Amino acid sequence: MTERSVRWGILATGGIAAAFTADLVDLPDAEVVAVASRRQDSADAFAERFGIPRAYGDWAALAEDGDIDVVYVATPHSAHRTAAGLCLEAGRNVLCEKAFTLNAREAGELVALAKARGSFLMEAMWMYCNPLIRRLKALVDDGAIGEVRHVQADFGLAGPFPPAHRLRDPAQGGGALLDLGVYPVSFAQLLLGEPSDVTARSVLSAEGVDLQTGALLSWDSGALASLHCSIVGGTATSASITGSGGRIDVPSGFFFPDRFVLHRDGRDPEEFTADPADGPRNSLRHEAAEVMRALRAGETESPLVPLEGTLAVMRTLDAIRDRVGVRYPGEETAGEAPELTPA
User: Which helix (H) or strand (E) holds 248?
Assistant: First the structure.
């Protein structure tokens, strides 16, 4: 793999699959060789759109395609356990969309399966691979704002989404938290690790999914995170990190920012902007490039999106759902999750 293109398979044909594939085909060392859908006509149309040579009308055929180096799983998260598991069982490497699974139990099963097979597995948390987010994290890690005291982040869509929409469907893992709240939670845990305690409140729909959720996470260090997600109101998608010696503000689009501002006590504000050479700010190519780098290096997980970090986020999402009473079909409890492990 070190001297040739990395061969990708795309599992699912929805909007995020199309966005990822559009970025992928622009990478010179990537080759999209197959796509699969539950319907042959959908796979055929997607293959024609992107010039993909093979189209499968079932997931298993893609999983068994030995010419594929890595599969991108882009189904709704309710199907991630099945789809990614099928690929891992067949010996494929996998990049799986977020939320990684419905709950921490399913996430743990995928991680265990990948480790048993010696396969690469990564959550498609593209925010962690964004160059400007990586710069922000480096500044925080280097003590630019002192010890982190508070993180704020929000992500909300105005809607309205009708009851038949997947975001309102419990069987598809609907609600604001898994679709949108995963970003604020992941942002906070990128900077602070797994929290020691979780408090949350939600407004639930008639179907039993969260229309909006507010969560307060706390750490033994004394740090707090105030997080919000919604499918009934558009938010600024802003974020801020307050430390003992300063603050970083991300004015909008915190998970794919074009700029952020560093405020340090006793100094003028410093603005950091995205490098145009890195491509459009909404590009998914950075996570694809990280997968290919890791595969060529023989790694089974990415240091940018480590599996333990993914599991920790899933435990927090489970804890939030447990606090607000959101359960999906087949779950005995909200997430069937173990106790939170303090960072």
Answer: strand 246-250
